[in-house]
Design goal:
The complex is a heterodimer of chains A (253) and B (564). In chain A, helix 6 (172-187) links the parallel strand 7 and strand 8. By secondary structure, chain A is of the alpha/beta class. Helices cover 36% and strands 24% of the residues of chain A. Chain A has two domains: 1-82 and 159-243, Rossmann fold (3-Layer(aba) Sandwich), CATH 3.40.50.300; 95-157. Chain A has a six-stranded mixed β-sheet with strand order 6-7-8-3-9-10, with helices on both faces. A four-stranded antiparallel β-sheet of chain A has the order 2-1-4-5. Chain B has helices at residues 25-40, 44-73, 80-103, 121-133, 136-191, 196-222, 226-237, 243-252, 256-285, 303-307, 319-333, 335-362, 372-388, 393-397, 402-406, 411-441, 447-471, 489-518, 520-560; strands spanning 105-106, 484-485. Chain B has a two-stranded parallel ribbon. Chain B folds into two domains: 25-285, no CATH class; 313-363 and 371-560, no CATH class. At the A-B interface, helix 2, helix 3 and helix 4 of A face helix 10, helix 11, helix 15 and helix 19 of B. The complex binds adenosine-5'-triphosphate and magnesium ion. The site of magnesium ion has 4 residues of chain A, from helix 1.
Chain lengths: 253, 564
């Protein structure tokens, strides 16, 4: 990956096997700089597994991941400097309050304390978390936890944001807010890749989409390339090939 | 599943659904067995741990059986009562204290998971209780106490054996119920904002009970006196601790009424414990408040100022400082870490103090001779135990550790910061122990030896446990009960603890040897040399283990992430 303009995120031949189950089998993906990339796929398709391997949380059985030309597994420090991550199904250090958690993340990233203070205040205000005061994050609601996790990922203004289901459990107002924050971030030259089940949001926000099913990328490209003249939902259902109607079963409901 | 599909034509009639079948106790038992089986599936190391646990259990069971049956086997009927009373009492006491202080309880059937099911409290409690009886410790206890049946049978024939068998079963039930009820009650208290600190103090007192118990055992073992033992056993036999276990002896010696009353005492105790347990179960089921500071009011000062506790204002505001500050807060805020800290601190501090001081007081004028070497040796034990708390330090964090990986924290910084944050609590404690010891022994000149040995063994222990916490980490369940552990984790915990203690002791022994060989000169040298040895060992440990951590971060995250 030593071209003049490396991709923001490049995944090459990623494979991950759990016991007998192959979760990801030979996955290739290029996320261009400045793109807003949506990763779609049915439950259990391997989205979380893929993103975890891309950011250095889960060691792939084979294959490699590159962030702006840095190999995540060979030179993790450079790659991780450029990354902001919001993992799914991972706890936060939730015995801290919101501000404490942000300060912790900021200082871990080697930021100046004054800058951390200022950004933390702004983020908490914008995400409507300032009122939580001294409540511990463990006592936050599910949506509030998502929002504080997003704030932690944004705090050090990374070049690439990797978000696993950022819109899950957040209310419509907060979702609109998050959309606007992410759009502004991409407008300023950042790159976002996120997984989601909300097709409308993906259709509205993304410049690129990839559809993952059975551990392989089935379709990938710009939004228009992938959906053609149909709706994204139609393409998704066709690619994934699931059933969309119930037959005789469930009559007892 | 006999669900009939309603024909499309008569949609108006409600579809027929079979009436729900009542949930029975055996369903809980089957569920527990299934969970244990699935837990072992396809993982060789878990299976070997399980086998090891069964072997340990078998060993204890057989030893216990022989001990309890000894009065009959050796034809010493006078010993039947002391064996049953004192042995049974110790057994119940062990079931009361050990889960709280050392082992935790196997809560693979987390009560919170049953909150949504339409189960009566009675069904739930009996079901969970039956499931709790499934497991190596309970079976081992049953086998061991079966020795009482042999004794009673040999002394009093079939009827006495039958009474003893009833007593043994009731005794086992009391053991299991007491461990559940007490851990559950403490879990509830540690969650509540109001009585959290009271619970901490209570826990400390209970843990401190181990000290006198130990002295009593050592003492009793020193001079075995049948009459005294019989008196003690007779008294214990009328308390819930010994009642069920001594019923068989009473029946054999012809006191049928006493046997009946004792069985009744056992049954009433059991009922009371189960009732108590069901009360705290309810609060465990309706979700867990964190017990953190009350919300609402916001604090003055920026985010960074809030992260650092006031006592830590001297630490630099950077990555290392943030790690130390967060760990320091966690040792206090996380109920699991707090209870660990409290119990290990109390055991590590009070037991040696009481053993040293106590045995000196009791064997006054005897051959006990306090010497710097003995002091140094016992301090080695304290330092080792204190450091042992870190043996699963990443398990405490669980999947939250991912945040540090994402930020790319180097292993060396991580380990150093964790050790420093923990030492903020332990080093003052260790210094206090030294002062207390020297004060009680009335030998101020030995202060240097005490502190030097403590710091040396603590530092070495930190180094050993850094390695262990990376290579031997295991996941802790995400429940509201800080005493809960996964099936099999108890064995892993004891095994790893044993390895850590052994390694620390070997590395710490030079200090004791130096005390013994160097004489008066060492009284002056011990403090600086011991402190340097400990600090050096800890730093070297962090340096070397940091490399291991850097290489194994993803594997570590996987092992400490609880599987839900
Ligand atoms: N730690 C693990 N051990 C075993 N199997 C796993 C593990 N993690 C994931 N899997 C399996 O890998 C597959 C992919 O899981 P993954 O979490 O990546 O799916 P996903 O696309 O994120 O699904 P969702 O949309 O539900 O979040 C699933 O079949 C899952 O069962
Ligand atoms: Mg997922």
């Amino acid at each position: 990956m030593n071209r003049s303009a490396p991709a923001a995120l490049a995944l090459r031949g990623l494979v991950k096997r759990f016991d007998t189950k192959v979760a990801v089998s030979g996955l290739n993906l290029d996320v261009p700089v400045g793109s807003f990339y949506g990763l779609l796929g049915p439950n259990g398709a391997g989205k979380t597994t893929t993103l975890s391997m891309a950011v250095g949380l889960l060691r792939p059985d084979s294959g490699s991941a590159w962030v702006l030309g840095h190999d995540v597994w060979a030179s993790p420090l450079q790659a991780k400097q450029l990354l902001g991550v919001m993992p799914d199904g991972v706890r936060l250090f939730d015995r801290l309050t919101g501000p404490e958690l942000l300060a912790y993340h900021g200082l871990l990233r080697g930021m100046d304390p004054a800058v951390v203070d200022q950004r933390a205040r702004e983020l908490l205000d914008v995400l409507a978390l300032a009122d939580a005061g001294r409540t511990l994050v463990v006592d936050y609601s599910a949506g509030m936890k998502k929002k504080i996790a997003l704030a932690c990922a944004l705090l050090h203004s990374p070049r690439l944001l990797v978000l696993d289901e950022p819109f899950e459990a957040v209310d419509p107002v907060s979702a609109a807010l998050i959309r606007e924050i992410l759009q502004r971030y991409v407008g300023n030259g950042g790159t976002v890749i996120f997984s989601s089940h909300v097709l409308e949001v993906v259709e509205r926000l993304c410049t690129h989409v990839a559809i993952l099913a059975g551990g392989i990328i089935q379709r990938a490209g710009t939004l228009d390339e992938v959906r053609g003249d149909r709706s994204l939902e139609e393409v998704f259902v066709e690619v994934v090939g699931g059933r969309t109607a119930t037959g005789e079963e469930l009559a007892w409901l | 599943m006999a669900v009939t599909v309603a024909p499309a034509a008569d949609r108006v009639t409600p579809p027929r659904v079979d009436p729900p079948r009542p949930v029975r106790t055996r369903h809980f038992v089957r569920l527990k067995l299934r969970l244990m089986g699935n837990n072992l599936r396809g993982q060789a190391w878990r299976i070997s741990l399980f086998v090891l646990g069964v072997c340990c259990g078998l060993w204890y069971a057989v030893t216990g059986f022989v001990l309890f049956a000894l009065p009959a086997l050796a034809d010493e009927p006078a010993w039947a009562l002391p064996m049953a009373g004192i042995g049974g009492g110790l057994l119940v006491l062990g079931w009361l204290l050990l889960p709280l202080v050392f082992f935790g309880v196997d809560e693979s059937l987390d009560p919170a998971r049953f909150a949504l099911l339409p189960l009566s409290r009675r069904t739930l409690v009996t079901g969970l209780f039956a499931a709790a009886l499934v497991g190596t410790p309970a079976v081992a206890t049953l086998v061991a106490t079966a020795g009482l049946v042999v004794t009673a049978g040999a002394l009093g024939g079939w009827s006495a054996a039958l009474v003893a068998a009833c007593g043994v079963v009731v005794g086992l039930f009391v053991c299991v119920a007491v461990s559940r009820a007490v851990t559950s009650a403490f879990a509830t208290m540690l969650r509540s904002r109001r009585v959290r600190d009271l619970a901490a103090v209570l826990l400390a007192l209970l843990a401190a009970l181990l000290g006198p118990a130990q002295i009593a055992v050592i003492n009793a073992a020193g001079r075995v006196d049948l009459d005294a033992a019989r008196t003690v056993a007779r008294i214990v036999g009328w308390t819930p601790l010994g009642a069920p276990y001594t019923a068989g002896v009473d029946a054999a010696e012809g006191r049928a009424w006493a046997a009946a009353v004792k069985l009744l005492i056992g049954a009433v105790t059991l009922g009371a414990l189960l009732w108590w347990w069901s009360r705290s179960l309810e609060s465990a089921m309706v979700g867990a408040a964190s017990g953190g500071p009350a919300g609402g009011r916001s604090v003055p000062g920026g985010a960074v100022a809030q992260l650092f506790p006031r006592l830590l204002s001297w630490i630099s505001r950077d990555r290392y400082g943030a790690l130390v500050a967060r760990e320091a807060r966690y040792w206090w805020r996380d109920a699991r870490r707090r209870s660990n800290l409290i119990s290990i601190a109390v055991i590590g501090v009070f037991v040696p103090v009481m053993v040293n001081v106590g045995s000196r007081g009791m064997v006054d004028g005897g051959d006990f001779d306090a010497s710097p070497t003995v002091l140094s040796g016992s301090m080695l034990f304290v330092g080792t135990l204190a450091a042992l708390t870190l043996a699963n330090q990443f398990g405490f964090d669980g999947s939250a550790y991912a945040a540090n990986m994402i930020a790319g924290v180097p292993g060396r910084v991580e380990l150093r910061a964790r050790a420093v944050a923990f030492s903020l609590y332990t080093v003052p404690l260790l210094l206090a122990v030294s002062v207390v010891m020297v004060f009680f022994l009335r030998e101020p000149a030995w202060f240097g030896v005490a502190v030097g040995s403590l710091l040396a063994s603590y530092g070495v222990g930190l180094a050993v446990n850094m390695y262990l916490s990376i290579l031997g980490a295991y996941a802790l369940p995400e429940t509201s009960n800080p005493f809960a552990i996964n099936t099999g984790a108890g064995i892993a915990r004891s095994l790893l603890g044993f390895v850590a203690i052994l390694a620390t002791a070997v590395l710490g022994v030079p200090v004791v040897v130096a005390t013994a060989l160097l004489g008066d000169l060492w009284l002056w040298l011990a403090l600086p040399v011991g402190a340097a040895y400990g600090t050096g060992a800890a730093l070297l440990g962090a340096y070397l283990a940091g490399d291991v951590l850097d290489r194994r971060m993803p594997e570590l995250l996987l092992t400490v992430t609880p599987r839900r």
